[in-house]
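Final report, closing paragraph on structural work. Over the funding period we assembled a curated collection of sequence-structure pairs, and we close with a single example.
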Amino acid sequence: MANNEISKHLALSQWIKDNIDNGTFAIGDKIPSENDLAQQFGYSRQTVRQAIGTLVAEGILIRKQGSGTYVSSLAERKPTEKTMRIGVITTYLDDYIFPGIIHGMERVFMKEGYTLSLGITYNKPSNEEKCLQQMLQSGVDGFIIEATKSALPNPNEYLYKEIKERQIPTVFINGYYSHSNYSYVVMDDVKAGSKLAKILINKGHDKIGGFFKSDDIQGHKRYEGVLKTTKKNGITLNEDAIFWYTTEDFKYLFGGNSDDIILNRLQGITAVVCYNDQVAEAFIKLLNRKSLSVPKDISVVSFDNSFLAKHVVYNLTSVVYPAKAIGEKAATLLLKNIKNPYKIQKIKLEPVVKIRDSVKDINIHDKQISN
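Its predicted structure, as stored:
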C-alpha cells in the first residue's frame, strides 16, 4: 500500500474515533457503509476497508454478517474510580538516561496530582509480565512503558490486549512493539544513525564497523540509519565488522576473552559506531588493553551523550539523548490520552549530535602524507 493510502486510512480511522467520542456515532449505532464512506471522502474501497478493519481489531467497531458495521460496547469508556496513579515501566532505572526521563515525567504529573508507580524489567519479558499484572491488579489511570526486547516477538500480548479492552491509555517511550498501535515518544534513531555516518564519511572514513543491539528496536533503527547513509554514499559496510549482541551477551562480548576475535574482525576498519556510550566505554577499554587509542588508531562515535561521553570516554562524539524532554512529552501525551483514549499520536524527536574529539580526520592526514 502506498504511503498516501496509509495516511488516508489512518485519517479515516481517526475521523470515526472522533465521531464516536463526540457522540455522533453512539454505542450500537451503525456507521456508514464502505461504499458511502468511499464516496464521501473520495477514497478507494480498499482504503476504507483497511480503516474499518483497524478499528474492528481494536474492538471499537464490530462487523455483523449481512447487516453492517456497528460501534462496539468496548468503545464506551466505562466510568471507573480514578486512582491518580500512573504505571511507569522501564527496562532500567539507575542507568544514566533514566533518572532524566523520570524527572521529566514527575514535573508534568505532579502538577496534575498524579503519583508514579514504578516497575523495572531489566529487559526481561517475564519481569514485564509481572509489572503489568501487578499494576493492572492494583489499578492505574494510564501506562508509560519502555518496551522490553522490543525487536522480538512479544510474549505479553495477552496483557496488552487486556489493556486495550479496559481502555487504559498507554504511551511507549524509546521503543515500541511493531505490531501494536499505541502512542509513543521516541528519538528518531534512523536519523541519528544517519547523522553519525555522515560525520564519519565527511572525515574520510569509508571502512566503518559497529556494535548494535539485536533484541531492541533502537539497535535496528540506528543500524538502518548508518546503512542507508553509507550505501547512499557508495560505501559498502563489511558485514564481518558489524557486531550484533543481546542484553545478555554484553558482559561476555566485552569481558576480555573475545578481544582478539573482535579486533580481527575489525581489521582495516577506521571507525566504529557504538549502540550507546556504555558500549563505547567497553570497546575503548578493550582497545586500551591492546595498547590502542582513540582516535589515533580508530575513531569511535556513539549515542546518548551521557556523562561517560563527556568525562570518562575520550571526549566522545555522541548523539544527544533528550531524556527530560522524552519524559515530559510522554507524560503530556498520556494526559491527553486519558481525556481522549482514541487519540493516537506518534512523536519522533529530531536528533542532535554533540561533536567532540573522538573522530580522526583522515582527509587531513592523507593530505599531510601526500605533501
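The chain has 14 helices and 14 strands. The longest strand covers residues 85-90. We thank the funder for supporting this effort.
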